[in-house]
Amino acid sequence: EMLAKGLQCPKTRFGKTGLMISRVTCGGMRFQQAWGPAIQSMDQVSPECQENVVKTLKEAIKFGINHIETARGYGCSELQLGVAFKQLFDEGFVKREDLIIQTKVNPSATAKEFRETLEKSFSLLQLDYVDLFSFHGMNLDSHYDMLFNNGENGNLYDVIEEYVAAGKIRHVGFSTHGQAELIKKFIITNKFEYVNLHYHFFGSYTASGGGPFGGNIENIRLCQERDMGVFIISPYDKGGRLYAPSRKLRNLCLPDLEPMLFGSLWLWMHEIHDEMKAPIHTIVCGSARPSDMDEPVIAAMLLENETFRAKTLTVADRLTNAMKETLGTSWVDSWHVGLPNCYETKQATNITLFVWAYNLIKSFGMVDFAMERYSMCEANKSKWDENLSYWENVGKIGSIGWGYVPGNAIDPGHDYSNELKKCPPENVPVIVEALEFVHKTCGKEGKQ
Q: Which of 216, 391, 394, 397 has the fewest CB atoms nearer than 10 Å to its CB?
């Protein structure tokens, strides 16, 4: 009914970019014909798929969504969007200046290779400029060096400065699945106007357990200090599989809100409930079809409704209390202290991720979500060679892929006590229990 009345998705200032960005972003990572390099021309794209892309864009624009986001790494997404944009502009459906278009490019070993990839993006998108450019997947320390300390291979950031000077890039940011400490390192360079990162009520995905507060909250607040735009990655999937919530989680959210609605409103209301009043500006919906945007847009339209604001805070309190009742207040406040992440453990075991998963399963019944996360670490572990060094293994697995899904699964025969020496002594038995529990609950070996 709200959509039928023609109500529009609200907009907000996107930090120092000054852009008025829609609260919902239309993400271009799910409607393309295929991932990977297989699709090189529109001849390989089915008419039905391209028609769906155009319909999805039109639906988004009709709802007031002005931010369209893609990446060079999203298969043929840029190719199809470039054709779709030209069609919409030629038809007069929307003006170029009324859209905020963002693309992202992964780091390359040399500035020359990076420039070539960037030019490919511009060619595919058929655009003279992009409003937002992101260095994609700033997940490893080596990526920081590629931008700023790349020696004779050339700093990648220097390339982007040239494009900014030429007017081809309006605003520069970065996207990340990195650890909280690394994200902070990028933010405090003061070289970026915005960031795409993971941060949700239920955790910070790959950054969960990191930083002084167990996730990316410190980085959200640093962005506020520097007036950076904040874009939240994957609020409905990596944010807890909210599109298919566990029964326990849904029951804890009801009768007030469905989990997706709660997750959206909690993020947008961050400057209200966060003690430092740090804002979150936009969250992405990876749309496979036009109707995928209905719930996020309706949620955005409810943001100014005092009744729904009150319900959001009520649900947040209920969920927090449920976690404390299940795990104990002391554990909830300190579980992350001293925990090593997968870059700090001998076998690259992702201890922080698994203790976080333990908390979610015990508190909210989020088994399916935890199993998806654990299966990726099992896949990494199956390729790990104990005869190689840590970084030799990462190179064999693929450093780009590792940065997005880092860490190995638990080795049930390994004694992790030496890696838990920085943890509060009272937490160590619970951590050991958590690792055993997650392996048995989520792992292939544990379920046999």
A: 391
Letter for the amino acid at 254? L
Inter-CA distances, 31 with 94, 254, 319, Å: 20, 31, 33
Q: Report the distance separating Cα 251 and Cα 283, nearest Å.
A: 24
In the predicted structure, residue 2 carries a pLDDT above the cut 80: no
Sign of CA dihedral 163, 168, 170, 176: negative
Contacts of 61 (CB under 8 A, 6+ apart): 88, 93, 94, 99
Helix (H) or strand (E) holding 397: helix 390-397
Q: How many Å apart are CA 405 and CA 399, to the nearest integer? A: 10
Cis-peptide into 255, omega within 30 deg? yes
pTM of the shown model: 0.96
Q: Tell me the pLDDT tens digit for each residue of 314-342.
A: 999 999 999 999 999 999 999 999 999 99
DSSP 8-state code for residue 206 = G
Residue where the block lists tokens 């069609």? 87
Per-residue pLDDT tens over the stretch 362-393: 999 999 999 999 999 999 999 999 999 999 99
> Which residues touch 183 (CB under 8 Å, ≥6 apart)?
138, 176, 195, 197, 207, 216, 219
